[in-house]
Fold these 4 entries.
Entry 1:
Amino acid sequence: MTRRPLLLWQLIGLFGLVVLPWYAIEDGFWNFEWLFDGYPFDSDYAPLLFLFLEGEAPWLWPTAAFLAASTYALGRDKIDPAYATTLLLAGGGGFAYVMLQGFTIGIDGWEYQVLNDLFGPRERQYGMGYGALLIMGGLFFLFTQGLAARGAVNGDVFVVGSISLIVAVVAIFIFFPVFHILISAIQDNDRVYSLTAFTGKMFSAKIWGLHCLTSTRGCGVAWNSFVLAVAVGVGSTLLGLAFALIATRTGFRYKRGLRVLTVLPIITPPFVIGLALILLLGQSGVITGFLEWAFGIHPTRWIYGFPGVWLAQMLAFTPIAFLVLIGVVQGVSPSMEEAAQTLRANAWTTFTTVSLPLMRPGLANAFLLGFIESMADFGNPMVLGGNFDVLSTEIFFAIVGAQNDQGRAAVLALVLLGFTLAAFWLQRVWLGRKSYVTVTGKGDAGVHVALPRRLNWLVFGAALPWAAMTMVIYAMIMFGGFVKIWGRDHSLTLKHYIDAFGVSVGDHGLVWFGGAWNSFWTTITIAAVSAPLTAGLGLLAAYLLVRQRFTGKHVFEFGTMLSFAIPGTVIGVSYVLAFNVPPFELTGTGAILVISFIFRNMPVGVRAGMASMSQLDPALDEASLTLGANSWKTVQRVIMPLLRPAILAAMVYSFVRAMTAVSAVIFLVSAEYDMATSYILGRVENNDYGISIAYSSVLILVMLVAVGLFQLIIGERRIGRRTRDSEPAPTAILGA
Amino acid sequence: MSSDLGGQAATVRFENVTKAFGEVVAVDGVSFEIEAGNLVTLLGPSGCGKTTTLRMIAGLEMVTGGRILIGGRDVTLLPATDRDVSMVFQSYALFPHMTVIENVSYGFVVSGMRKEEARTRARQGLELVRLVGYDDRLPSELSGGQQQRVAVARALVLEPEVLLFDEPLSNLDAKLRRRVREEIREIQQALNLTTVYVTHDQEEALAVSDKIIVMRNAAIAQEGAPRDLYERPSNVFVADFIGDANLVDAEVRRVAGETATVSIGTVEIELPARGIAPGPVKVAIRPESVRLSDPGDGLAGQILKAAYLGDHLEYTVDTPVGELFVIDNSVGAPRPVGSSVSVAFGTRVALVPSDD
Ligand SMILES: Nc1ncnc2c1ncn2[C@@H]1O[C@H](COP(=O)(O)OP(=O)(O)OP(=O)(O)O)[C@@H](O)[C@H]1O
Ligand SMILES: [Mg+2]
């Protein structure tokens, strides 16, 4: 039985060697035409074995030798040192060799001039495909079995394999691309390393200029982003606090309605708010029109620029601040406030001297989240920015626009990454473990002290208009799709929905003639494919972090959580830079979208998994182990069934996030794999507001249904009379 | 109690085993041997390393130094999955999503046994713990005592070489605790299982064990049969920890062969010498071994406190050698607080070698 994983991975490697094409198939991962197009002899489609038989690509042949060498371990005892050594050398060596050849022989032959001089010119090769993937997977897991046999993590094959797998994928899909940004930043446009080019770009006035202080010209994009992010952070924190106080400290009657607020940010693509703002306050917006009609105020484009972006981001991110703060505000134990009052403090003094200081960590947390979200936001500045440039949009135009200046994009991405990492780091250092404040199980009876009257007015005064505005915005989104031409012809129509989602019965069955179907189905497919993968990887990492002890665990945790602090735009650019060329040639495929979603959303899976796993008695795993199950069987039979709610939560969350994501996606879509959000943004740029808003409301509805279904399934799950299911809603994970 | 289940009991041997968690040394150079078919208790105050020792036998913790042998085989490097050891957890650790029968047959199922056979054997285990007819209940639908028995059944159906219990009774109420520990002992003896049992309740330990290993600060303080520990504690810690004891300063006057003459205050008694030379010494006097009588020629004392506990009386008596805790069975003739008494000592008094 202990022999099984060894043979399994050898067979997988063998399958990759003999049956599947080594190189990537040009027509896409899921395209199987190659099967009938010269396979297995055409060298574009040939498995490694056939390449060998035909005498092609000789530099790949050693790969097979490594795989063959691993069979030396078969039939040997695990305790035999030769077993471990064989696997370490064959697996590790083979894997390293494949990587090495991939990075040295690229699309133009030798990647490095030195090698060209040394060995003479070399044929080019393309990105690696299924065959290479399987062989590398096989070699990799043979290597990890060698590690396990050497006694790593108590010799547990599954655990060692999982840790290594996560380390490897995080390295390839997070560190490697980010590293690529660094490299690109210090290269000039001819890919020659140049520090002057770097400093020139890095310290250009376009990024850091301060002209706006002295003249009418705009400031550098870094300052724009920074000021905007601070303003949004402060604003959303204060508003979020107001809502949180209303929800916990007042007799407000519609508190449950406030809860709806918590769901909005996950089901709304961020730029949709910006879009609705245009419909309200733009030149032909409803309110603008009303003001002109009633007061003769001339319509202006004031909404395009800082005010509009700020407003849109405030609307989009206040719910997140609310989410963070409501936990914190509830967490301030009522008995503390009661204690203060018995010490003769009045309501105002109690609030300012006890409650508020206790909330300070939460306030800082909410601010930093708002800051990071604002920095990373791409959609709203895109839609509403006008001449107000921010880092995320600049990056996009640097790479997509006429400039096509990868170096500049990389430098800008570095600056953006610097800001968010610094914020993330500050948050960690400053708040440390204090981020969760909870009411303890016992002894905290008592009710929260009512707010002082002054504060009460302030809180309601700020929050209610805002809530009203949010409602108007969403009403707008739902309604806007039914209006013919916004601002000019307000007669009702289904035209936009038909344009987007029209279906008719043709000669050969249904004809999906609506313009949105392609991107809609792509989005659903990509989201559905990435959801289980994201959840799986995230929960696996959580399992390792919560249940296993191994050296380097902190680094491991940092690695899995890092992408949380990397703005989508940066991920997008880095993927373009890193995966445009062999050995990982992924741009333009659906796979790159899936991968970007997996790694963007994995931290949420990790968090969700860690939260629920630490509620599972570790004795359950241990019981299973002492009963003779290995750790893989334990995960399968004990942990997974018990974590079902967390798994579902992570899946729904990543599904929904994949549907609403914009910033990374915008770089990675292609004609074939267009996503809903990028399609909508495209229409917005053409001022096709009708179809954009119609499509957005359909997306929101689809996600509402997904979230609702999820609640339904979770709501019904029970293990027995004694378990309470109080799984954190997917949103709760967003906070902290 | 007839059953096809039978132990393949094995010995357990620790050779100089050490376990450190970073800076904390939880078990420090411990050696002992457990005979096949014996029930051995690990007893000691909180944090002394009992659980850690047990988990090292199970393979849930890996040793930092030393060797562990089970049935003569070196298992030091084997993880839990590969050891033939089962464990009953303090929290029972029943899988909440599986029924009783699924829980008990889990060990068979994961090792690839056919489902019907696994169930048949699981039923035998449930019969043994007298839980018939509960097959399809979920753990959450059982009482605490029933859950405990499922946990025991789940561990012993696998006929492990060693069966481990980590404070199995601590979640039960006092009455149930006594019954269940008797059942565990009965099954253990009937199946001839090598069993290691962790508890910090000394009464429980005395009641069920063939041998007790008393631990203190990550090391063994004393090991031996229950009677040995109670009557011949080898240090003050053990004397104090096992049962109640009055630890009193005394002096060995002379030693003749195996017998020492010891003076406690003004009273002289004869005790087994245990190799102790004349000079100052500590004696452990069990409370039931202190005799009270009307003032006379014993040690003069005065009642400070008295408590009535139904079947016996408890006194605190002030004497020239210190305050003594006394258990008196003559419930019919209580002595009032403040009255004078004469104190004498029975046989359950032991010389305790000094700790250093
Ligand atoms: N995983 C761990 N990491 C660090 N220290 C540990 C760990 N497990 C146990 N310890 C420490 O080792 C020492 C012994 O712990 P152990 O659990 O064996 O005590 P115990 O005798 O079972 O106590 P109790 O009666 O309270 O259960 C304690 O000081 C404990 O803090
Ligand atoms: Mg313990």
Entry 2:
Amino acid sequence: MGSRMLMKGNEAVGEAAIRSGCRYYFGYPITPQNELTAYMAKRMPEVGGTFIQAESEIAAINMVYGAAAAGQRAMTSSSGPGISLKQEGISYLAGAELPCFFVNVVRGGPGLGNIAPAQSDYFQATRGGGHGDYRVIVLAPNGVQEMADLTMLGFHLADKYRNPAMVLADGILGQMLEPMEFRRPDFPPLPPKDWAVGNMENRTSRLVSSLFLGEGELEKHNLDLQKKYDKIQAEEVRWEGLMLEDAKVALVAYGTSARIARGAVIQGRAQGLKVGLCRPITVWPFPSQIVGQISENVKNILVVEMSMGQMVEDVRLAVEGRCEVHFYGSTGGGIPAAEEILERVKRLI
Amino acid sequence: MAKAFSRPATFRDVSTNYCPGCGHGIIQRLVAEVVDEMGIRERTIGLPPVGCAVYLDLYLDFDMVQPAHGRTPAVATGLKRALPDHIIIGYEGDGGLAAIGTAEVIHAANRGENITMIFVNNAVYGMTGGQMAPTTLVDQKTATTPLGRNPERDGYPLRLCELLATLDGAAYLVRTTVSSPANVRKTKKAIRKAIEVQMGKLGFSMVEVLSPCPTNWGLNPVDAMKWIEEKMISYFPLGEFKTPEDKNEVLIDDTPKREPKTK
Ligand SMILES: Cc1ncc(C[n+]2csc(CCOP(=O)(O)OP(=O)(O)O)c2C)c(N)n1
Ligand code: SF4
């Protein structure tokens, strides 16, 4: 506790989950997140927890649904192709207001794509991904330390809001080794799980369900969900700014792209370029207000992503035409180059 | 005078949504009777299907968790692992269990999950309007086989008990029907035995019940029962396909087989 150690991102997620009290892990192998599944297979029995290698990602997320309905902290993890399969279950978890935590260690798509790191599942993560009007809390770490910290936060927010929460990582974050420590976050107390099934002594029976067939029932349910999402948007936005005060060009990037963008900002400042960085840590809720404020003070915004342009849509929505929004992306396994970012910044300043 | 027939406490006093002559109501009453007779209501959790019985919680008064269509065995797995001393009863039709959820049921059975599935085989998709199910008989007319099921195009009716009987994790597999009072009594016995197998932590148990859907079969309730006896049973033979006795295992041994390790 409290001592620094070297850890892989995927394993840091696993250990952070266990330290958050998660005792149920259901998974299915897929690169580049296999270290996490293997870590849980080893660790869960040591802490009296349950590890199941499910027959598919569909089964895994539904096992999470079952354990979550019993009031337990449960999780799964995968990469793009598997997360696609989990969408049905995630929609049901959101509809039934069950807390759960999962990780997407993103690889290149579409289809089978490749196993190189990517950020091309941003739409899938932040738009819901499955059917219906729902939201998932999406946390985007930029290194091994945050892989752990945001896992702990993810479990907390999931319970606080009775909602699925996820870490949106990528193959680099999952597999890189960095010094880190497991912190003991000081989260406020959570509400009791007085909706969970089991141990029905001295109470009436409970139903965990996303079915609302009665007249007006679904409308009411969805309006209630929206109120919850509004509250999350108002209270849970997290972001980090770097040298934005006098910036003429603001970079907006998350995760691995933000690490590279940060390097570009430091190099650029050394060359006298007035460039700064806005790094969303929650990509849903997206820091729209912050990006809106930044757009009032800069000439240009450059969004950097390992995709063909997904988060850039959220930036444009937040900017509402107040400044120009440009995009630099990489795809297919390539990562954005700091030099290339700087070249573009020079043109935009 | 003692009352010979009354409503089980677990069976809620509500009017039914099922069509006249439907088998779902009979089967659910049997579940309620067994749960009450065994005194396990407080630690029983049911899983309503996506199908005509989607409102299972309206009829049975214990905790319920509603899964997606066909995912019942996976959700039941998560529930049972989280609440190992509870009795988990999944309830699904042939669309749910034998089509969209085939992978989930095979693997839950293969893992020997200590859960009980009630499998209502009515040879059609009831809720969506009587389409072909995996269990639809050859030549049977449905909304999606207007000229009758043609095995060359549609494949053959799927026998789930026989399929699962090859798996070591499956402890109790039985096929019954509700076509006559005697068969209803046998179905009740089978449900009780399946739950005992679960409580004994002997592995996966499933009761397949051949059940009438007069509405989608285009028959009156009496003829629907006859159709089961005349048409269905010859293809879907009744009986036990796997029992714990095969392995000389004891029923009702409530000591956990998989003691969780605690540190
Ligand atoms: C993923 C998904 N696909 C399709 C449906 C539509 N659907 C609802 S019930 C059902 C079939 C019901 O048939 P069965 O499982 O045999 O139960 P029964 O109604 O006959 O009791 C289908 C296909 C759905 N709800 N979800
Ligand atoms: S459609 Fe068939 S299965 Fe559904 S309630 Fe009516 S008779 Fe029962």
Entry 3:
Amino acid sequence: MIPVLDVRGLAFAYPDGHQALYGVDLHVHAGERVALLGPNGAGKTTLVLHLNGILSGGAGSVTVSGLPVVTDNLAEVRRRVGIVFQDPDDQLFLGTVRQDVAFGPANLGIKGAALERRVMHALDQVGMADFVDRPPHHLSFGQRRRVAVATVLAMEPEILVLDEPSSNLDPTSRRELADILRGLDVTVLMVTHDLPYALELCPRSVVLSDGVVVADRSTYDVLTDEELMAAHRLELPWGFDPRSIGSLPA
Amino acid sequence: MGAGHGHRLFFHGHSVVHRAPAHLKVLALVGFMLVVVALPRQAYVAHGAAALVLLAVIAVSRVPLRYLAPRMVIEVPFAVFAVLMPFVSHGPRTEVLGVAVSEPGLVAGAALLMKGTIGVLASLTFAATTEADDLLRGLQRLRVPDLLVQIMGFMIRYLDVVTGEMRRMVVAMRSRGCEPRSPRHWPVLARSLGALFIRSYERGERVHHAMLSRGYTGRLP
Ligand SMILES: Nc1ncnc2c1ncn2[C@@H]1O[C@H](COP(=O)(O)OP(=O)(O)OP(=O)(O)O)[C@@H](O)[C@H]1O
Ligand SMILES: [Mg+2]
């Protein structure tokens, strides 16, 4: 089976010379939910920005369902890979929730009633349909995060990539977002520092550290491997014991 | 696009003026301003007529003068300049209340004050009756280049975000014993403005990434 996401030997240095990725390999198959873990500065966001060709120019390759991420394919790649950025204020830049959610599908050439259907369906999926005519900057942070997810769902991507989806959410919003993500019928790659969240949502975890993949196993195995965790600055919250929770069925 | 409901100068209402299409209002405002600017300096009656037209529009819009008046402080620097003109200008002198002043200066100052006041009041009325969103769509309809309209839209959208960021920076400075009002701390303030600029620039870059990720190709749909 062709993986939805196939990253091979990806290396990248920022223009200022800082090398952020040193040969990353990563495969994600359809229907999987994978957590991408790693300490601050590991290169997670840098990797995410390569998945739809925002960053490029280093060594290695990225392929999305068989389609190489190169300039000629960018439009299709960006339809297939939906990225939810960490700060919803970066993602919501139009006057109303409706305009913002419609932005992506409208760029795909969808118009009129079909566009409206997409918008409302995406907002329904995240439980924000009642806010369709509100300006995004008047919403709470948790609501904005959900609308940001909807803006990407409206493009009906093959894989949803989320950069730290649970950051800055209160516990209730965090759980509600987990319920939403679990209910979606889409492949997910989730960057997170929230290890219990990874265990709850993602059967498999990939650990990135200093620009290389250092582990790719079941989330349960990663979180219970104390040596690996300590070596890569990963720590469980106080009092949290994965052993008392167990592993998700892979 | 734009700030949606109620930008800072907007006065909520449902009058004819509020409901008039924004592009017509833009045209009316620009036309009105051109006429007022073009009026001969000493055509006091014509200036009075223009002011009356403006007051009539304000009355129809039901925006209280009480709401507009405090917002006219923006004119103060120009007013000060206009009042100084008779004293600093050259030319033949006349007496006003026993003080010798320059006659051309008096005429020029009075003209500046009249034209300025009418212009500011007209702009405020326009702002008070037009949503940012409608203004942008109006400009689009008037064939203003797309890129300019987009830039204005983003400016409106991110004004709150950037001023919020600045407020937080000032709070953080104050909390560490730096008072931005005192000249002693102005160098720090200048540096933090530099930081604000870089932050805004980087935010712009991130917003652009988020747009590209959703298939943006240079035209807003
Ligand atoms: N625009 C940039 N220019 C130069 N270096 C950068 C830039 N952005 C990130 N880096 C560097 O690249 C490395 C990887 O950064 P990246 O943002 O990908 O880390 P991350 O894993 O997402 O970290 P975090 O968990 O803190 O979000 C870091 O050392 C960072 O300093
Ligand atoms: Mg990051």
Entry 4:
Amino acid sequence: MIRTFSSIDVMYLVAAARWTLALTATAFCGSALLGLVLAIARISPIAPLRWLVAAYIYVVQGTPLLVWLFVIFFGLPLLGVSVNPWLAAAIAFSVYGSAFLGEIWRGALISIARTQWEAAASLGMSMSQQLRYIIIPQSVRIAIPPTVGFLVQLIKNTSLAATIGLVELTREGQLTAAGTYMPFAVFTTVACIYFVMCFPLTQWSRSLERKLDVAR
Amino acid sequence: MSLVDIQAISKSYGSLPVLKDVSLGVAKGEVVAVIGRSGSGKSTLLRCINGLEPIQAGTITVDGVRVNDPKTDLRKLRQEVGIVFQSFNLFPHLSVCENITLAPRVVRKQSPDAAREVAREVLHRVGLEEKLDAYPSQLSGGQQQRVAIARSLAMRPKVMLFDEVTSALDPELTGEVLKVLEAGAGSGRPGGHDHDPRHPRDGLRASVRLARRLHA
Ligand SMILES: Nc1ncnc2c1ncn2[C@@H]1O[C@H](COP(=O)(O)OP(=O)(O)OP(=O)(O)O)[C@@H](O)[C@H]1O
Ligand SMILES: [Mg+2]
């Protein structure tokens, strides 16, 4: 039965956008936790650890996110691990995001002068104290604009989860378009909703960048 | 026995030899100035004493502890060896008070109140109590240097290493700061004891003071 694209459908799209945001938030937390570990491992004094993490980052950055989604969603069940679309998407996006955040944050960490490490070490601080009290607080300022930029990419990339059947904004759009035969109107609305979520972040990232430039 | 005992050390950066067969002993309470022209290796010598730079030959012993022994806990050693860097290396994201209290709090586990008291006291000694809540970027070069001195003093180290101790100070302040250092050494002797560290290059000039201060 064909129905028209009505305000009810728009409400459903907006409701589905909550799942986009939920997936973004989950993926961001996973990416951040893993990314922080990767960033620190990348600057650790243990060379094999650095190589291992570098290899992980190059592999993840050198392969499409969509493929990771499929590998995890269709591959894990072959190994006897059952995954639902939500879990598969959360894992795939965390793997993908950790590699990017790991690189962004590593860049921020190594941008802090070596003399700051030395000054902290000379006061008897341990490696982790140097990181926690001296290096990380200073690198946060540098890391925030690119991290917000990454977040915007992440919001848009969660649309790929539609391919494994997760009903987030894009998937809801596909379903609505199939029901109404009004794909143009539906996907224009979907685009608007993505824009409303991303634009404020982009602006925020810009203003942070400007502030940092002024502070420098 | 000397508190700081340097025996025939050699140090090179890659293929650039900087220290060749340098020996030096500093007794408890003694103030020693190491003098030499720019680029002769004064900073390098001080950085070797607290283990920031590895040496290729010889031995450095501080209070009976071998600096270049892999078994040595450098963290522990550095709590007893204060260093004021040529470029001060204050922590720009922390206030003067936090710069001074951080290591006593996290390394020596002092209570925040006790650490703040010590900060007041050492700042008073360098004549900067009114700058307790300022940030390093709000201070002049000489003031930054005095905060760096206060930061080291707050750890109550057994040995203090000052790199270009009066470089950023005007003549009037130089006298003041030297008095602080001498008071720290507890020797009551005016002036330091100049020492020729048998440097590979000659043309020695007053520049760095290697000072030793008594435990208060
Ligand atoms: N990290 C480094 N890597 C390579 N060479 C270095 C390094 N640090 C210092 N050098 C070189 O070692 C030599 C000694 O440097 P050092 O900083 O110890 O001199 P200095 O006596 O403290 O000079 P100044 O009075 O100008 O401070 C110089 O030739 C310098 O170029
Ligand atoms: Mg120097």
